[in-house]
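hi! just following up on the protien thing from before. the input was this:
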Amino acid sequence: MSFAFVFPGQGSQQPGMMAGYAGHPQVRETFAEASEVLGDDLWTLVEDGPSEALNLTRNTQPVMLAAGIAVWRAWRAGGGAMPAFVAGHSLGEYTALVAAGALAFRDALPLVRFRAEAMQQAVPAGTGAMAAIMGGDAAAVAEACREAAQGEIVEPVNFNAPGQIVIAGHRSAVERAIVAARARGARRGVMLPVSAPFHSSLLAPAAARLAERLREVPLTAPSIPVLHNVDVAQHREPDAIRAALARQAASPVRWIEIVTALAAAGVAAIVECGPGTVLSGLTRKIDERLAAYALTDDTAIAETRAALAAPAA
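and the predicted 3d structure came back as:
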């Protein structure tokens, strides 16, 4: 069975999220390596929190990178096969590039911490916001954002699944857009507990800083095709990868299109590699024909390996 690996981003973190892998040598070694590179005890952070520290963007992004690569290494050490494609949601794209051999883990860790700090610093605290619009049509949500802008910025930034779109921009404009989206048929809008309007055009300064930093980071052609958030395309040239990563910071995450493209390429199953089940849930909403698995612990790895190796019914 042809399958793809997908890596979660910010939002899937919570204290205890790696409990299912606490005794796994590859997982603990990966966290030890990450902690040594960054000078922070990431394992204690994911085990004990507190949530306030884990949810700080500068901590969350390297933690989620380490978690995704730890589970990837556990999968491979247990005899798990190589996927046909990899992709990642927002920050998870960096994890996908590490798994594909395009970006060294030790280079990725300080890079994503820099990314987190650049994104946080791009917009003054309290100025920006994000909200999830549930049940709304994409065109209607975009129209609601245009109506609500009123000289400010608010725009769709995460196309996660049909009827699940995230908007971001100036806080007051986001609040107006929730009302406008509900008037156009959306079921509800929920403000998200985030510290910046990620992936909105307000983060253009962060994208520019990231582009500068990426020039210093060694990249090579990936050994596994990577689908990028910003253009749903594969890139092999290092400069093209750098450009896609920089643009991603201030551009929408086109997750529906990524999953659809994977299915069109013959992928029959999508495996979420990292803590949580957010992406496997989105997979089922996007295309119910796709099998969806989440590697939440050692048992899930064994069960997923068996399922992917089983002959088609």
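The CA atoms of residues 18 and 276 lie 9 Å apart.
The two ends are 11 Å apart (CA to CA).
cheers
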